[in-house]
Write a structure and sequence with these properties.
Length: about 200
């Protein structure tokens, strides 16, 4: 059964795919007029749409309308700031998050890394390890490796053996060397680099 929320969510997905922000705003107005109490699911779709289209102002306005944001709500507004390079806002949202997962940490680390704040990315990575985050994902791992190979991040490079062990323990690598050619190449690179100590 198709609900109004699912109906609007489908159209919002089309707006993201076609990069049509004007149409997204029209849909937003229509939702306000026709949906008395929007579900968090629908709010999340609006935040995601505005975030993907680079409009963090509207994304935050929608986020602030949610009485009880769920973990996905927090992650998508965090990702919106991360992708757009609003690092101060990104850190502010991260600090306010009631719970954080691998997606949250990836948004924080990659946001700093992609926008020229390598040292802040390293600090976030170190904080992540201190907090004992084990549900790491492939994207977080790739981001940290990219940082490790950049100038000024020698200490991070030395720590990648520890990070790889956490990544391996999280179950993200299935079987020897991962499940894809890229992961296997990464796996053997790390093993060669540490003389096999991580396995």
């Amino acid at each position: 059964m198709t609900t109004p929320s699912n109906h609007y969510a489908s159209f919002l997905r089309l707006c993201r795919e076609t990069r049509n922000q004007a149409q997204a705003k029209k849909l937003h107005c229509l939702i306000i007029k026709t949906v008395a109490n929007p579900e968090t699911f629908l709010y999340n779709n609006l935040i995601n749409t505005y975030g993907k289209l680079g409009n963090t102002t509207y994304a935050r306005l929608v986020f602030d309308e949610i009485a009880q944001p769920n973990p996905f709500s927090w992650n998508i507004i965090l990702s919106a700031y991360s992708d757009s390079g609003f690092l101060g806002k990104m850190q502010e949202v991260f600090n306010l998050m009631p719970t954080r997962d691998g997606v949250s940490w990836n948004s924080l680390i990659s946001g700093y890394a992609r926008h020229g704040s390598a040292m802040e990315a390293v600090e976030a990575y170190n904080l992540m390890l201190r907090e004992g985050v084990f549900n790491l994902n492939r994207i977080t791992f790739s981001t940290v490796l990219s940082l490790a190979s950049s100038q000024g991040c020698i200490d991070l490079g030395r720590q990648r053996q520890k990070f790889f062990q956490l990544y391996k323990n999280s179950g993200a690598l299935e079987g020897a060397g991962g499940s894809s050619p890229g992961e296997r190449q990464l796996f053997f690179f790390l093993v060669d680099d540490s003389a096999g100590a991580v396995v």
